Amino acid sequence: MLNKNVFLKKYFLMTRSEENYLKTIFHLGGGDSKSITTNAIAEQMETKPSSVTDMAKKLAEKGLVNYVKYQGVSLTNSGVKTALSIIRKHRLWEVFLVEKLDFSWDEVHEVAEQLEHIKSEKLIDKIDELLNFPKYDPHGDPIPTKDGKFQERDKKLLSEMAINATGVCVGVKDSSVPFLKFLDKNKIALGNSIKVLDKEDFDNSLRIQLEGKEIRISHQIASNLYVKKND
Amino acid sequence: MLNKNVFLKKYFLMTRSEENYLKTIFHLGGGDSKSITTNAIAEQMETKPSSVTDMAKKLAEKGLVNYVKYQGVSLTNSGVKTALSIIRKHRLWEVFLVEKLDFSWDEVHEVAEQLEHIKSEKLIDKIDELLNFPKYDPHGDPIPTKDGKFQERDKKLLSEMAINATGVCVGVKDSSVPFLKFLDKNKIALGNSIKVLDKEDFDNSLRIQLEGKEIRISHQIASNLYVKKND
DNA sequence: AATTAAATTTAGACAAAACTAAAAATAGAT
DNA sequence: ATCTATTTTTAGTTTTGTCTAAATTTAATT
């Protein structure tokens, strides 16, 4: 390979693996200059701590993370920027899959994991435009703008809402396939109106009104559903 | 990695590099049980013959190519099937980029080279459906169906058409960026009606009527434009 | 048929990204 | 403050896909 390309690769071009590390570190909170341990990263990525150490050095070399031996890693400004651009792509592709290709929300993650690594600024900007610049992905998570800004929605876990409070379902905390499939089966979707009718002290289960219909849900479920309170 | 996965990887899962080799061998004619030399493949892929030899062995091991030392490679049935599925994805993505995201036809190839490797049968079938099952890509090349069938259109190079013959521009032979940009600049597009008015013996240039307007084009251009003759 | 030129393969090396096992550093508990 | 358990790093190995240089085979020419 040409010398110039070796240089570019070493300092500018991101590999898929590097992008995945940055994304994981961001999700573990490494964007707030908090140090994330190699163990935590390894566990999240289902890899070994020694592999994380290797990558930490490489990312530090590129100026994407701060890495101090035995002290874990945190993202630099440049690292945050890069992580957000990958998360932006991931979430926009998820919206695309649901809105334009009728994927169900439990199917999108795996495919978006691949699509997020496609390198073309024009492509993702056009997808953004096609979707009319959505602010949230199918799980209710906010989509960063092109310049890396995004706003977490003012939301509460359903399990923490007061009796008689009303709101709209805006997101999920657990976005695993089994949970999403459960919600589908029980016809619970983002945008649904919710009113808390009653709480059962014994098992913390809830009686709620969902789009007018009265149903009962367990604490497990209620503590993984985000609701935006009506003012 | 688990033993099962090693097995899957060795015999079933395709890497990006393997897919690119299969595609190249197909494009060089290796689908018609014709032997393609390692040199030809290396040149096309801008790599070295020794690298091709390595890959030839691996693909043979997977049953995707027939490889005899010093004799070159040809695709097996399984290899053709795989190559066609990659070409199908490439061409469908090209249509998507042009039709849905307003890419110009000289911009699509590079991005489609990445998108063709996304692994999701559902994704590409849904894209196919969204595009209403197109038969040709933006350069006029046929898109294989899901079961690997495709029909080359009955077409002729513009340079080979008789004087006074009429037809419709249906494809390009050279799909390089400079040529496509040239066509754009001169407002020559697929679907345009064409009538050959006159041939210049001296330099083989043509006088043609394009969508009613009379223009002159060089032999270079005419021998890279495909036309479907009107019956 | 022998010789030479070209094409192809082998052998050995490298970089990326992972791993294992062993060594080193840190943190917690007494 | 020391010892121990845990965490983290180092060192060395593996796999994939590439490369160079050397060796081998094929093809072409006389």
TrEMBL record, chains A, B:
A GO term from the CC aspect: cytoplasm
Domain HTH dtxR-type, chain residue ranges per copy: 14-76
Entry annotated with the keyword Cell inner membrane: no
Protein's cellular compartments: Cytoplasm
Protein name: Transcriptional regulator MntR
GO molecular function, one term: transition metal ion binding
PANTHER family: IRON (METAL) DEPENDENT REPRESSOR, DTXR FAMILY (PTHR33238), TRANSCRIPTIONAL REGULATOR MNTR (PTHR33238:SF11)
